[in-house]
Amino acid sequence: MLQRKISEIVDRQDAKLSMAHLTVSFVALFLGAIAGLLQTLVRSGTITLPAGIGYYQLLTAHGVLLGLIFTTYFIIGFLYAGISRTTGKLFDFPRRAGWYGFYLMTIGTVLGVIMVLLNKATVLYTFYAPLQASPWFYIALTLVIVGSWISGGGMFRQYYIWKKLHKGELSPLISFMAVMTMLLWLIATLGVAVSVLFQFIPWSFGWVDTINILLSRTLFWYFGHPLVYFWLLPAYICWYAIIPKIIGGKIFSDSLARLAFVLFLLFSIPVGFHHQLLESGISPFWKYLQVVLTFMVIIPSLMTAFSLFATFELSGRDKGATGLFGWFKKLPWKDARFFAPMMGMLIFIPAGAGGIINASNQMNQLVHNTLWVTGHFHLTVASSVALTFFGIGYWLVPHLTGRKLTAKMHKLANIQTILWVVGMFFMSGAMHTVGLFSAPRRTSYTTYNDHPDALGWIPYEVAMAIGGSILFIAILLLMYIMVNLGLFAPKGVEEFPLGELAQGAEKTPAVLENWKLWIGITVALILFAYTIPIFDMIQHAPPGSPGFKLW
Amino acid sequence: MHLHKYEKWWLMLGGGTLIIFLSVIGISAFAMGHAPPSDHMTIDPQKVSETKPFDEPGLKQIGENEYELVMVSQAFTFLPNEVQIPKGATVHFKVTSKDVVHGFAVTKTNINMMITPGHINSITHTFDEEGSYLILCNEYCGAGHQVMSARIEVS
Amino acid sequence: MEPKVNRKKPTQIDLKTTPDADKSLKGTFISVLILGAFIILSWAGVYFIFLSRL
Questions:
Q1: pTM score, two decimals?
Q2: How large is the ipTM?
Q3: In chain A, N or C: fewer CB atoms in 10 Å?
Q4: CA-CA distance, B90 to B125, in Å (whole number)?
């Protein structure tokens, strides 16, 4: 059998592709963070923006740059590196696809940012109709998504060729997870692509007069929830497949890790209604049905919690830990590659608990569109995911640029993590609390004519600004570390940590790689959860809405 | 696939807890009438002011201490803007939008719903406590979104 | 935030009788139980607020 020789260092050319993605990702992170800082200062009444810049313009920039650009670029850069590391140097087609995707996404990103800066797209990253942005904003988003599909296609191709060359063998764990992540992304983005191509673009160009609001929102949220799993799965890749190596342990179970990813594919898509629980035009039955499906997607996260604690405990016991929690002290707390993702994992506990509350049908009335929700996803994506991505960056950037993560950078990175956790504690904690008092999200500074209920929010908004300021300092530190690791750190070889299975580990069932089966079930679940309600939305649609530009 | 004994226990406990959560909210929604606001009525969003009952927004008594409150949301106000109701009144809110998507939330209550143009949304609440309740739009609707509010005075 | 050793050890756990006896995952089990308790308490807390505002 033809065996490819796998180097422990990502091929130089592949490294360039990944670094290009990571660079755009961190630039977007920096710009988005500036917007974020200003938002917290405006919201608390601390500053007033100079004329010409709107709060909602900043909010659009923050959401698009961080939710869409920072994440997608980082993920594609990381996954390409992971695939190259585990299946060997990229073949010609996958590498070219990666670059085509990169250029297309970048054209889209630049165009989109220009539209936001020109104040022609102040519709927030959810771009709810009938607020109507310039058609070029929607075209820009289309380019980003189509670009990411091409990159995903490149990864599928690399995996496919590897499987052809290694008939009957189990694919490397990271490549399997990368393919699963991009597959989830592909299926999810179909919804928003349909909505943008067939609803938003014709409507914003004026080719049609009106738009079906409920349908556009439903197609958006068909995409909007799996989007958060698209952010989360690469973090899970780090937790399952990379962290065990860093802590000197073994992967707890290859099969369980793959099974978790399969379950995420199945259950993260047919659940978009839990973002639309308070909307008219969708019956309580279908809402509740999707709530049940949403709860199914909690199961793989419960499995993950067990697997991760087990990895920690087993490796700690191997190192001689005793007692119930002795292993906890054996973890390499001073290692930045571990500390940042570990904080991310711990933060996922309150983040997950909050998510269960959000999805709990009528309990959503308590928190929907309040700052609670903003607090929630600043724990999930902006802490669990972001800290894990930072933790990946600490070794991936020097690995790709042929440099070393120095002791000094380890130390700074750990300070970065602590600042992040403290800043987020203030910001997200205040958001969660004041959200329960009905303080709305996505709202500029207001006291509603000094209504006592609204005046009571102000101390929390100040706490948010304090937290936001600490977070911004953390971002400055992160930028310093990343620039150092990419350009100035001493030359050398930084390891790409790759978790290994324990000796004599149980064989992974081949069915977990049966893509036709999993895609089939996914499609069936989507059709089950969405067909009747969407048919109803079209059948019983009210007259559509013309566009509005109210900013 | 082999599962560690504790992992089996954990998944059974976790799964069981989720089933309990789902049962509690399911029973509350379908047997006790607490399903989230999901009105199925539609309206022509460009003819709101000519369509009953939104041609005359306001409070209408329909029973003993029971009212229907018809409201129109539009950038960046609610109509009516201030409502007085007696303590203990049960109010059936009926709201639609003349332009873009708005939110409709009332502080200190569970009232929170989306107002999408073309659709009517409705919710019922009994105001047992005196005080000033703030109605606010909690869905971004444009440059003046942060001023969009109204008040309910319960006395 | 992190599990501390201040919880009672469950007495019903007997490692010796299981095929997993070589892998002690007691700490893991207690950790996830604490996690589960946190989820239940948060959820119940918010549900209680929901009921109080009906």
A1: 0.94
A2: 0.97
A3: N
A4: 6
